[in-house]
Amino acid sequence: MFAIIVYDINVDRVAKILKISRKYFNWVQNSVFEGEITEAKLEKYKIEVKKIINTEEDSIIIYTFRDMKYSHRETLGKDKGGDNIFL
Amino acid sequence: MFAIIVYDINVDRVAKILKISRKYFNWVQNSVFEGEITEAKLEKYKIEVKKIINTEEDSIIIYTFRDMKYSHRETLGKDKGGDNIFL
Q1: I want to staple A76 with a disulfide (CB 3.0 to 4.6 A). Which of A3, A28, A82, B60 is the partner?
Q2: Which chain B residues are within 8 Å of A63, Cβ to Cβ?
């Protein structure tokens, strides 16, 4: 499946979350990642980040999609992305 | 169609972008919005925000989807969202 990850993490923990996210996904923009991933790997990702985040302060949104055939991504303004592999 | 908006905007302009985004979408988390929207309204949104953003500094990512039937959203940590109307 395909996943889009958007996070809002306290500066004290953001570097760790960034590092973990890069192992599983492609970096799109500051706090946005995306990529194809298996359900098993996504579970692993969740376990890793849950160990780091403070549930009172931090937030990670995970969108998952079975089919990205009818989807599109557009960037207005500066393309801050690292890895650009979207469909 | 369904759209997910993620933005990274300089603090000088973020309030304006937030205000415009709220007219068209539901607020999910700090800089994330989503919602059903027509192509015509999305074009209007783009025109409005393009007038505000500094293309050297700011970035708005717009994901659009024809079909959200096989999609899912999950939040780890704090649910910072305002309007929660996801499928």
Answers
A1: B60
A2: 4, 71-73
Angle value at C-alpha B47, between A78 and B39, nearest 5 degrees: 105
Which amino acid, one-letter code, is at A78? K
The interface predicted TM-score of the complex, written ipTM, equals 0.83
Q: Total structural domains in chain A?
A: 1
User: What CATH number is given to the structural domain containing B19?
Assistant: 3.30.70.240
CB atoms B57 and A77 under 8 Å = yes
pTM equals 0.86
pLDDT over 50 (residue B65): yes
Contacts of B58 in chain A (CB under 8 A): 77-78
Give the C-alpha separation, A73 to A68, whole Å.
Answer: 11
Whether B47 is in a domain gets the answer yes
Contact A56 B78 (CB under 8 A): yes
Contacts 24+ apart (CB under 8 A), A38-41: A38/A1, A39/A1
C-beta atoms of B77 and A62 within 8 A: no
